[in-house]
Amino acid sequence: MSRQQASADTQQRHVGASRAGGFLLLFALGLATLLILLALLRQLGLPDWLLDPLVLALPLAATVAAALLAPARGGARFHLAGHTAGGALGALSAAAAAAVVPSFVGLGVSTFEAGYDGLSGGLGLSLGLALFAVVAAPLIRASGVASFSELIAARFGRPLGALLSLFAALLMLLGLAAALSAIATVAAEVAGLGPAPAIAAAALVLLALTLPGGARSLTAAQAVSGVVVIAAVLLVATLLAWQRQGSLLPMLSYGDALSAIDKLEIGLIGRKLADTATLKRHTAVYITTDALNFLGTVVTIALGVCALPPLATRAALAPTPQSARGVAAGTLLALLPLIVLLPAIAAYLRLDVLSLVAQPTPVDKLPGFIFDLGRGGAVKVCSAPAVSQDAVTAACAALSGHKGLLRLQDLRIEPELAFLAAPAFARLPPFIAAFAAAGLLAALLSFAAAAAWSAAGSLVGALTSQPGAFATRIMVVLTVFAAATIAVVAPAEPVRLVPWILPLAASALLPPFVLAFWWRRATASGIALGTLLGTALTLYYLAGTTYFPARFYETWPALSTASATAVRKFALLKTAAEVATAGPAKSATLAALDVHAAGLANWLGLRAPAAGLLGAPLSLLVAVLASLLTRSPAPAALAVTERARSTAAAPDAVHAGDAGATLPAGR
Amino acid sequence: MTRASSTTSTAPHLRVWRRQRRLAAAIVTVLLLLGFALPLLVQMLNLVKVAGFPLGFYLSAQGIPVLLAAVVFFHARRANRHDRAPSVDAGRES
Fold first, then answer.
1. CA distance A86 to chain B (A)
2. Which of A180, A240, A499, B23 is least buried, going by the fewest C-beta atoms within 10 A?
């Protein structure tokens, strides 16, 4: 390809990306106009039963339409979208998939439940995206590879490439199954759908987002999803701040909400409406975790996110290495509203919950929205699903010592549905919650589609060196079908295993991914040994502490942080299990032993989300040492590294590597 | 292609790569300090309150992610400027 042709082609790609950015801006404006129009129509009498489904369905329909309207292309264009996914298009599409981390880890499991301690999710994600932008994105594009699998195969040989591709596919399959389970949970809350129909519908949507135009469809759908997700978070946060404080800048004004939370928490303890043993002070530091686990979680999320194959694929779709750098930086910028505002939404929800308890509120006179949320599974009161006033009153009456007033420990909001509960607790119009649900579903679908595409790509990459559109389409169908089956048959298991994804990605995928570009001396044998040992250590720790806690604790008692009391209780339970006769009694004592042992089975108190601290350094260290002890890689194996380094420094030369045109034989 | 001509054509790229490597090392150091070291000071920083926010909480919730984004954009700008340098050099050499 001549220099002029290359330049013209690059120019054309930038124009394509820029035009897509214009469409996305128009879509954002259209979405805002539509919401204002629907709000006005509600004032004029449009009923909620008509308005809410419209607000929920229209953004999701736009996502599917974007995928279907993206032109279908075969060959390299099917996998690489013609390298037009630069600028806002690339950034928003990557952000939509990554939004699942702050949406669930940030707001759900952590910030709402754990206050400060939960901020590790947003910190880890920001750091991971930042590291990816600096050390990986431009080099991936410059190397000319289309995916993680192709990079590892080109640099370290096909056997290791195939093995790591299979492992990456398994991780993505797990993420996909967990996302489908989460979609079923959200669908039950907002539409009353059962798990099987919800998962089947989601699976069909995923096929529509990926099959028609491959990477092009996926990019278009994810970019539209990105706009919906960001708009949903911005709208909910702004309305909460406006209602509480008359402010349109929640990121600056929720400090007052934090102060009010502090005062209310202290007041509730004094009035015995909160239990000091279970209360997690929202702004207090290290209540649910400690400094080691907080930083360990940040490290694990950062390294795991940096190594996730969907991000590598996203960088490969950019027009140039420089554009890939911009896309990665833009992804972090696009996610900032979520990272910054989700803790604000969590704080406002916490304040509303505390205010409800502080009123005080009798449990037999709970507001109606509690039951609206409870019927979908979002809220429990006195450990019972809040499906009706009678059910709640009976559940609270059954608790010993309950005086009939709602206490903080009585009210439980399911963490993954906290984002949907926030508008209801703030008494915002129901269509706001419907739009929040659209945002949450868009984030989940976007991540699920990226995971399905990446898992299918990794599987095809493991099986063949010349992936075709047909093979990829078949593999996408099989992947989605497998994940949907898992989500229907064993919905709890993928959700339970989600914390394993990032520690395993950090241990298995990061060292080969980074060393492929940054260390010419890295050898296939060194990487294989390092990856094997690092992954085995992480897997041993995760599986041991999750599935065999009693045996794990007995193997490593000296490394556990268990208290003397907990150790004595373990000894008593173990004796009881040993003397129990075979049958149900023995099973019950063994189960009790395992439940207790789960709190003891650890090394220095390290928990699963922070387990990357173990495997990633070991993997890297062994890879380096073993590489130094083995023969230097052959020049052919370094071709992809050299191309990445030289092409990154010469923007016009990127075409030499496009679609792997110059990859060595046997890649 | 002779060895001499090969060296002449790749030297600017090598120079750029070395500059990019130095820049990346500096930026990664800054990122790691922001991401890991600053949260370690949270308990001390929380003694200071700004607009109702305990400072440590505020930095972890907003300050550090925003700073990370700013550093990444700074890096992108500098790195892209470095990338453009060899074409200019090559043009002058030829």
1. 14
2. B23
